[in-house]
Amino acid sequence: MLAGDLYAFQDLLSADEAAVVERVRAFLDDEVVPIANDQWQRAEFPHHLIKRYAGLGIAGREGSSLLNGWLALEMARADASMATFYGVHAGLAMGSITMCGSPAQRERWLPSMAAFEQVGAFALTEPTGGSDVAAGLRTTARREGDEWVLDGAKRWIGNATFADLIVLWARDVEDNQVKGFVVRGDAPGFEATKIDNKIALRTVQNADITLTGVRVPEADRLQNANSFKDTAKVLRQTRSGVAWEAVGVMLASYEIALNYAKERQQFGRPIAKFQLVQDLLVRMLGNVTGSLGMCVRLAQLQDEGKYRDEHSALAKAYCTTRMREVAGWARELLAGNGIVLDYDIGRFVADAEALYSYEGTREINTLIVGRAVTGESAFV
């Protein structure tokens, strides 16, 4: 049981699901955690681990939303960068094909992606468009016979420097609707350039993408992605995963702070004996517990078919806000030691900033929830 799971939420998993979680946790502890700081510092991706992820047998695996959420938690608890890699591949890319592809397309791509024989990326955000991407998408798609010609640019695309398949969203010049395409990473006219000098998720290979007359056959257009409403269905599903990842970062931060407090000696005793330190730890644990409870209920709503946009939006906005607090408090507890990678917490503090922003900023998610509760849209 995790130290931060005070209310034993993990007990809600079935025995089989709990076994999967324990197997994944052991893999992360053995393979990911020992190299996480080094990979992060060098801003390099551990490509040797891709096949090891395949061996876990979890990508594309049918399971409860609680299990899938808990796996996202475990991955972020080990390393938010590798959680993002997995979320982009198995969540955004495979999720787009699952939700928006035809049966033939799902059969063609998903088995090899589940086996990590082909790695996926998801290209929506653009250099000049983030929160306004629904109306402001500028990448264009023009049909010519049995092919589509794509032109434009994308930014912040995780996995893009080495992905085999990129789910890319472009606006059809004929009907002005956003459509989805599966573009091969080696397609002529497709170029992905790594974004350097990041201060968060440094292990993730984010890229700027340029598309210059990239030709995609009609067979590679996602057949059930015909407007941004279809794109939004994917985002709604994966946004909940970011909330779970935020809880994972909180759990890691809390565990680091708790262990440090028990070991660090000041004034002849461990700082865990100090009232103010215990107060800080309890505040952290409260954020963890409240956020984890929200995510568990979110998973139940998903499995009950009662899941709505505002549910994932509130969870993403709330949990990532609490995550920043917990990571910051943990860094505070470690004092000067908290700013060096040797004590781990610095990486989580930095990575929390990226999770706070991606999959919809707090402000945008607030407006989604606000629209739902008031019946009035405040979007410009």
UniProtKB/TrEMBL annotation:
<keyword id="KW-0274">FAD</keyword>
<dbReference type="InterPro" id="IPR036250">
    <property type="entry name" value="AcylCo_DH-like_C"/>
</dbReference>
<dbReference type="InterPro" id="IPR037069">
    <property type="entry name" value="AcylCoA_DH/ox_N_sf"/>
</dbReference>
<dbReference type="Pfam" id="PF02771">
    <property type="entry name" value="Acyl-CoA_dh_N"/>
</dbReference>
<dbReference type="InterPro" id="IPR046373">
    <property type="entry name" value="Acyl-CoA_Oxase/DH_mid-dom_sf"/>
</dbReference>
<dbReference type="GO" id="GO:0004361">
    <property type="term" value="F:glutaryl-CoA dehydrogenase activity"/>
</dbReference>
<dbReference type="GO" id="GO:0050660">
    <property type="term" value="F:flavin adenine dinucleotide binding"/>
</dbReference>
<dbReference type="Pfam" id="PF02770">
    <property type="entry name" value="Acyl-CoA_dh_M"/>
</dbReference>
<comment type="similarity">
    <text>Belongs to the acyl-CoA dehydrogenase family.</text>
</comment>
<dbReference type="InterPro" id="IPR013786">
    <property type="entry name" value="AcylCoA_DH/ox_N"/>
</dbReference>
<dbReference type="InterPro" id="IPR009075">
    <property type="entry name" value="AcylCo_DH/oxidase_C"/>
</dbReference>
<dbReference type="InterPro" id="IPR009100">
    <property type="entry name" value="AcylCoA_DH/oxidase_NM_dom_sf"/>
</dbReference>
<feature type="domain" description="Acyl-CoA oxidase/dehydrogenase middle">
    <location>
        <begin position="121"/>
        <end position="213"/>
    </location>
</feature>
<dbReference type="Pfam" id="PF00441">
    <property type="entry name" value="Acyl-CoA_dh_1"/>
</dbReference>
<dbReference type="InterPro" id="IPR045008">
    <property type="entry name" value="ACX4-like"/>
</dbReference>
<keyword id="KW-0560">Oxidoreductase</keyword>
<dbReference type="GO" id="GO:0006635">
    <property type="term" value="P:fatty acid beta-oxidation"/>
</dbReference>
<feature type="domain" description="Acyl-CoA dehydrogenase/oxidase C-terminal">
    <location>
        <begin position="232"/>
        <end position="373"/>
    </location>
</feature>
<keyword id="KW-0285">Flavoprotein</keyword>
<dbReference type="InterPro" id="IPR006089">
    <property type="entry name" value="Acyl-CoA_DH_CS"/>
</dbReference>
<protein>
    <submittedName>
        <fullName>Glutaryl-CoA dehydrogenase</fullName>
        <ecNumber>1.3.8.6</ecNumber>
    </submittedName>
</protein>
<feature type="domain" description="Acyl-CoA dehydrogenase/oxidase N-terminal">
    <location>
        <begin position="15"/>
        <end position="116"/>
    </location>
</feature>
<dbReference type="InterPro" id="IPR006091">
    <property type="entry name" value="Acyl-CoA_Oxase/DH_mid-dom"/>
</dbReference>
